[in-house]
Design goal:
By secondary structure, this protein is of the alpha/beta class. The chain has one domain. It contains four helices and six strands. A six-stranded mixed sheet has the order 1-5-6-4-3-2.
């Protein structure tokens, strides 16, 4: 989550006219009144939200899937362990980018890619296993989206501080996410782990 490429997303700020194609309710308002305003949806499924207070703050999320199968819990867990991210069945990778506009004002973009499992034939699963799959997957997705929210909240605070300490932003976001995983046992306490 420490990828830092200053100015890499700035052409997006300047060249893309956000379309009101989708309104993402996620993330909820972090401290200091960040509220998503207009949304832009990319062909790859990326959803980007500008703040209603400033078009110099951008939050983007894309969900990518890896396929698994299995009609028993053991088969499912084996597939998740084999095909999923190491040490977890899902992961969120966040990129922090910043720069200045032509007037020297701070610009920040937070872009997260969430990797989640997708069952190749959910309808063929026995009812009990399907219920377990659907419930756990929903909790897992919520857990991963929370990682993105932490990035948005911390970046918004930095933005409101006019990027005075932006060099340490990625490290602060990493620390929040590590603490979150420790407190939730990587989502286990939220029902977000396949076991």
């Amino acid at each position: 989550m420490k990828t830092r490429m200053a100015l890499a997303l700035l052409p997006l700020f300047l060249s893309v006219s956000p379309l009101a194609l989708a309104q993402e309710n996620d993330p909820p308002s972090p401290p200091v009144h960040f509220v998503p305003a207009e949304a832009w949806r990319g062909e790859d499924g990326t959803v980007c939200n500008f703040s209603e207070y400033s078009e110099r703050f951008l939050s983007c999320v894309v969900v990518q899937y890896y396929d698994v199968g299995g009609r028993t819990r053991g088969d499912l867990l084996s597939q998740l362990d084999k095909s999923g991210p190491k040490e977890s069945h899902a992961v969120t990778m966040t990129q922090v980018e910043w720069g200045e506009d032509k007037d020297g004002n701070c610009m920040i973009a937070i872009s997260s890619t969430i990797h989640l499992p997708r069952h190749s034939d959910e309808d063929a699963m026995p009812p009990e296993l399907k219920k377990y799959w659907v419930t756990t997957l929903a909790a897992l997705e919520e857990h991963e989206r929370q990682h993105h929210r932490f990035a948005v909240w911390e970046a918004w605070r930095e933005f409101r501080n006019n990027c005075q300490t932006v060099e340490g932003l990625a490290d602060r976001i990493d620390a929040l996410n590590v603490q979150y995983d420790l407190e939730t046992k990587n989502g286990e306490l939220e029902g977000a782990r396949f076991q």
